[in-house]
Write a structure and sequence with these properties.
The chain is mainly β. It contains 2 helices and 6 strands. Strands 1, 2, 3, 4, 5 and 6 form a 6-stranded mixed β-sheet that branches.
Length: 113
């Protein structure tokens, strides 16, 4: 599954599950393989930990390319693929800009490798 990074989006609270947030992309997503416009397929939940250590739930869209028959996950730019922490938490820990980081020391050492 390929990921599509959304740079222009709005974050709103889900009306069905108030604990979760929905990412609304302002751009029309296109397939990175063939350039065709993607259509909605379903949603999946993704969790990310912010700088305060709060684990937030996000409902992300999975999109399908009809010509390629591939699924793509649309993620906002503050969530890094395959990471549990938000982008700012990781970048601040790597450049040591913040004195406090919610991640364990072993996790921060692994990021610095």
């Amino acid at each position: 599954m390929l990921m599509i990074i959304a740079n222009r989006y709005t974050v709103v609270r889900d009306r069905i599950n108030s604990e979760c947030f929905i990412i609304l992309n302002k751009d029309v997503p296109a397939c990175p393989q063939c350039g065709e416009i993607l259509s909605g397929y379903d949603n999946r939940m993704r969790y990310a930990i912010d700088s305060l250590g709060i684990k937030r739930c996000y409902k992300l869209r999975r999109l399908k390319c009809k010509p390629c028959k591939r699924l793509h996950l649309e993620i906002p730019d503050f969530i890094l693929p395959h990471k549990h922490y938000e982008r700012d938490v990781i970048s601040n820990a790597l450049c040591e800009a913040s004195l406090v980081c919610p991640a364990d020391d072993s996790t921060i050492r692994r990021w610095k490798r």
